[in-house]
Amino acid sequence: MNVLNITILAEVVFSYIPNAREMSIYNILRSINNPILEPIRRLQRRFIGDIIIDFSPIIAILLLNMISGILIY
To answer: 73 pLDDT exceeds 80?
Structure first.
């Protein structure tokens, strides 16, 4: 689960870099994280609506850490 946290954080950092969407590493990170983040984004849009801030990375990291804690326990 730790690797997924790192890839999510890396995607967040890359999202602030201009023209990052043209970089292959950004596209690789998106392809790894999209199956995790997209369902959370849909739920976010459903309950909160369209807002400027995307909370899905924060929610995903929290959920991954909770799942990891349950599995380790």
So the answer is: no
